[in-house]
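Review form for a predicted model. The reviewer records the input and the model, then writes brief findings.
Reviewer: anonymous (R2)
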Amino acid sequence: MIKNYLTLIEAEIKKRKFGSEPKSLYGPIRYIMGLGGKRLRPLLTMFAYSLYKNDVEKIVSYAMAVEAFHNFTLLHDDIMDRAPLRRGKATVHEKWNVNTAILSGDVMLVSVYDLFISLEEKKLKAVLELFNICAAEVCEGQQWDMEFEKKAKVTEALYINMIRLKTAVLLGFSLELGALLADAPEAERKALKEFGVNIGIGFQLKDDLLDVYADKKKFGKQVGGDIISNKKTFLLIKAFEKAKRKDQQELAKWISAKRFNKKQKVKAITCIYNSLNIPLLTENKILAYFVKGFDLLDKVKPTKQKDQLIAFTRDLIMRQT
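Model under review:
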């Protein structure tokens, strides 16, 4: 099923040109959309739809709208984070320039509405209301993320709320979108949304863990990028909580340093994480959110498609990239 869904998604992306002239505006869109990735969000939309209807090919363009929005956020986030790599390739602002990346991202956002506009009037209104709330929350999450970089201390609760907004609500919307398009009962739509939010938090926590511990050849992004950027991730927050005076001073020294060797900083902070058993603590937190998400799926009737959704989600827990 996943292979078939991915084939449909990739075919739709290739078919969609997004625009033609100037090439410097639309080229970056085709570039980032063509870099691949997990296609997690459109897959979740299609999975949710398949729980209720069999003609999933009818909603591929709407699933792709979610992927276009996701890539719009990545394009702009990479500028803010000064990220050199995305999926193992140069980011758009590195390959072209910052101004082009901003404008291309703006056009990508417009294309999302263009993809949704063919919906029947009643569903269009419902989808756009949900999407606009989600899109605003994603922006709120990104702003909190940037502000946290300048804060000396961030609590676990504040961090979890930030990743809920920045990452998890879009996974929730992806699932709710599929359920809404399939005319699912409202209670099940909401359960699928909250399932998505919880696995989204777990997914981001896993991403935080992989940012430090992933195989550089497989990860596709700069390993240790969060450490270099002073991102207040779950790992760093828990390290400050658990560390004794010496390690706290070491952490504070690296975070306040204006000039530093990137490799030395990543190595030093990773060593502190290891000594405090932060990886295991993070894995346990990831598992807790996935379990909470699975519990919410009890509200959706058992089907073969539901089993496949669960299997797909479990693979996310075990992923190494």
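Findings: DSSP finds 16 helices and two strands in the chain.
Further findings: The chain has one domain: 2-318.
Recommendation: see findings above.
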